[in-house]
Design brief:
Blueprint: E1 2-10, E2 16-25, E3 30-34, H1 41-48, E4 56-61, E5 64-65, H2 71-79, E6 81-84, H3 96-101, H4 110-114, H5 120-132, H6 148-161, E7 166-170, H7 178-195, E8 198-202, H8 206-212, E9 215-220, E10 223-228, H9 235-242
This protein binds adenosine-5'-triphosphate (ATP).
The site of adenosine-5'-triphosphate (ATP) has 12 residues, from helix 1.
GO molecular function: ABC-type phosphonate transporter activity; ATP binding; ATP hydrolysis activity
Keywords: ATP-binding, Cell membrane, Membrane, Nucleotide-binding, Phosphonate transport, Translocase, Transport
Organism: Periweissella cryptocerci
Length: 250
């Protein structure tokens, strides 16, 4: 269970990016954050694993306030939060399985991680995760020889290698064609449903958010203007979230 309580963030240039944001997320829930460009979606996501520090509020992860965690506690919390990136963040010259194994680094000693020493069981897990995302035939393919959709599935397998409780993903499908979008979203959904991993995704396309989410939070100008189930997101609510940024709605 993750509870975001009243978080606000003003960047160093004085811009108030988010204001008193609150919402909560149940375990295994697929939550989408929607809103126009610049609304504050990435700021919220970055707050959750404290890539930026908020000015005020609480972020409770299983009742522990992430904002109050010391370095060691934060490392433990971050180990439970996997990230899936818009631009995949893979090492192109390394194979799919080597990229997935990088997901285990947080649990290894610095030396064995730096030397790329992985146990047989870690290698077996990485191969099984690639199989899970439909890439069993591409284990030894170099990442830069994969399609965008396949690279994103490697990114998902790498996040899973971390054995996370939560996956955070900022625009995971922004660089993908419609067919790859469906495949990647289907796998993210499967992870939430079958592995009970909470998925929090910033999404630009409302229809995709409605199709895949259990719960949607709409942000406009740094504030929550919608917090509910997809079927509660009526056309009027969508206008409320996007204002005049109609292009984003389609
Ligand atoms: N490091 C920063 N310093 C100053 N202002 C920032 C910084 N990062 C973001 N902002 C500003 O804060 C606001 C919210 O940004 P954020 O990236 O969270 O929005 P977003 O909803 O994710 O937008 P997009 O959909 O375009 O990615 C924007 O006005 C942005 O310009």
């Amino acid at each position: 269970m993750l509870e975001i309580k009243d978080i606000s963030k003003t960047y160093d240039n004085g811009h108030k990016a988010i204001k008193n944001i609150s919402f909560s997320i149940a375990d295994g829930e697929f939550l989408s954050i929607i809103g126009p460009s610049g609304a504050g979606k990435s700021t919220v996501l970055r707050s959750i694993n404290q890539l930026i520090t908020d000015d005020s509020g609480q972020i409770l992860f299983n009742d522990q306030d992430i904002r109050q965690a010391n370095k060691q506690q934060l490392r433990k919390i971050r180990a439970q939060i996997g990230m899936v990136f818009q631009n995949y963040n893979l090492v192109g010259r390394l194979s799919a399985i080597e990229n997935v194994l990088h997901g285990a680094l947080g649990r290894k000693s610095t030396i064995s991680g730096a030397l790329g020493w992985y146990t047989l069981s870690e290698k077996q897990s990485a191969a099984a995760l690639l199989d899970l995302v439909g890439l069993g035939d591409f284990i030894y393919t170099r990442a830069n020889e994969l399609s965008g959709g396949q690279m994103q599935r490697v990114g998902i397998a790498r996040a899973l290698m971390q054995e996370p409780k939560i996956i955070l993903t900022d625009e995971p499908i922004a660089s993908l064609d419609p067919q790859s979008t469906t495949v990647v979203m289907d796998y993210l959904k499967k992870i939430a449903v079958e592995m009970n991993i909470t998925v929090i995704a910033n999404l630009h396309q409302v229809e995709i958010a409605k199709k895949y989410s259990d719960h949607i939070v709409g942000i406009n100008n740094g504030q929550v203007v919608f917090n509910g189930q997809p079927n509660e997101l009526t056309p009027a609510q969508i206008v409320n979230v996007y204002g005049n940024d109609v292009g984003a709605i389609e």
